[in-house]
Design goal:
single chain; two-stranded antiparallel ribbon; about 15% helix; globular
């Protein structure tokens, strides 16, 4: 399932977390996610799926960590390599249907990775294009969910959102450079 939330769907809640780990100079933070599920242009879902234009919206908070996920020998087809871990603060999210409040349950961990903009000349070329990085994530849905003609069975959900424009990346690269030299 390919779910592409709006850019506002990923927003920081608390960036003062002091959770560091020895594998990475990045620090953990908590974000509020809004999964806005419905038909998107170019969807691979069956034609009748979400054809009404309705949406199923799930809000929940996650902790984004710098810890690497332990993977089997088979790597995730979307993220490749070993992704970083995010953890839902609560593994359940509620949504409303004509039958009242319903609950979606998720696995206690998901994976994330950033795909930086690439130009033919690397970072400097990408900066000139005005493109953003792409946040790629997966999370495992543990219970079926349904609202009108939108339904998902328990499976791995893949999400993408744009993040960090080139100017912000350049500032981050400059701040990270001294840490990377010692790392």
């Amino acid at each position: 399932v390919d779910i592409t939330p709006n850019c506002e769907s990923f927003s920081a809640v608390d960036t003062n977390s002091q959770n560091y780990n020895s594998e990475s100079p990045w620090k953990s933070s908590q974000w509020r996610w809004t999964l806005n599920i419905g038909r998107e242009e170019g969807s691979w879902m069956p034609e009748e799926w979400a054809s009404s234009g309705g949406r199923l919206v799930l809000n929940f908070d996650v902790e984004i960590t710098a810890d690497r996920m332990e993977m089997s020998t088979e790597e995730d087809p979307m993220l490749k390599q070993r992704p970083f871990i995010f953890r839902p603060i609560q593994t359940k999210a509620t949504y409303i249907t004509s039958k009242g409040e319903q609950t979606a349950e998720f696995a206690p961990e998901g994976g994330w990775k950033i795909r930086f903009p690439q130009g033919s000349e690397g970072r400097s070329s990408a900066r000139k294009t005005g493109r953003a990085s792409l946040l790629r994530c997966f999370l495992d849905l543990k219970t079926p969910i349904q609202r009108n003609d939108i339904s998902l069975e328990p499976e791995r959900l893949y999400l993408t959102a744009q993040c960090w424009r080139e100017e912000e990346l350049e500032v981050a690269y400059r701040k990270l450079a001294p840490i990377q030299q010692d790392y």
